[in-house]
Amino acid sequence: MCATSPSLLTSAATTPGTPLGFPVARRATGAKGRGVEPVRIQKFIADSGLCSRRAAEALIAAGEVYVNGEKAEPGLKVEPGVDKVTVRGKPVRSTAQPKVTLAMHKPRGLVCSNSDPHADEGTIFDLLPREWRKLRLFCAGRLDKDSEGLLLLTTDGDLANRLMHPSNTVVKRYHVTLERPFPVGKVGQLLKGVKVENEHLQVEHALLLNPNRDKLSTSLDVHLHHGKKREIRQLFLAFGFPVKRLRRYQIGALRLKGIPLRGVKQLSTKEISLLFATPRAIPEHAAFTDHED
User: Fold this and answer.
1) Looking at per-residue confidence, does 162 or 247 come out higher?
2) How many CA atoms lie within 13 A of 19 on its CB side?
3) Could you give the percent of the chain with pLDDT greater than 90?
4) Catalytic residue among 47, 144, 156, 158
5) What's the structural domain count of the chain?
6) Across-strand partners of 63?
7) CB of 188 closer than 8 Å to CB of 215
């Protein structure tokens, strides 16, 4: 039974161990806590492995998260193992699972989804070895179906939040191949950006690779840290240069190098730290090939 109070929230000041200003979930009369430190609802959902913390915040804002039968509010704190949390009507349990972070060399044609009835070629989760399929992994920064390269999957909600939060400064590097040569004179326009469907799209770095004597090239090295959906493709298309191939080869200082196409490797603590390290600058004479790792 749920509490009959009209509000899900109760004053945090009356809850020992809870900082002032953070509401906690109201429970049914007689329900007792277990002395477990309350956590914010979005962290609880992320720690369950259901989705990233950012995605959990979106679910809460959309009214799809309930605690003890009442709609959750942003910032609400819950006690794992005591409060009943549901997302879209399904219970979410804080079951302990190991913190695992994987790096995958995603091929073109696969979607970054656990299940998709329209995914004719399957999803990236079909590439996982059996021992990792039982984990509740989610993508920390997706690649669209037509893109390839370095993709991160993790059970660590805090790590995913650090990587995907709008305030992050983690740089993602891409090798872009265009359907027709791009002039060096337009590189400045990529850095300045353009508005597409009321969104400002831009990159932070763009360099022509192996330009010809007319300073034209179909290949560019592009960097950005925010990464809106299909941002690179939409940006180049806005200037009249459709993308033929898009490949992410580095996140932070972690490179794709050494992971074969469709391959997966578990990252060590040291490798995870590379995600937040400052990457080396790309020299202007750098050359990439279609087989560059």
Assistant:
1) 247
2) 7
3) 57
4) 144
5) 2
6) none
7) no
Does 131 map to a domain? Answer: no
Known active-site residue 144: yes
Is a pLDDT exceeding 90 seen at residue 104? yes
Q: Which residue, 96, 113, 140, sits at the end of a domain?
A: 96
Q: What are the pLDDT digits (tens) for 12-25?
A: 333 444 444 456 66
Q: Tell me the Ramachandran region of residue 166: left when phi exceeds 0, alpha when psi lies from -120 to 50, beta otherwise.
A: alpha
Task: Give the pLDDT confidence score for residue 244 in this predicted structure.
Answer: 98
Q: Write the CATH number for 77.
A: 3.10.290.10
**109 assigned to some structural domain:** no
Residue 71: give the domain boundaries. Answer: 36-96
Distance CA 110, CA 40 (A): 33
Let me know: does 137 contact 112? Beta carbons within 8 Å.
no
Residue 69 half-sphere exposure, CB side, CA atoms within 13 Å?
Answer: 10
What is the model's pLDDT at position 225? 86
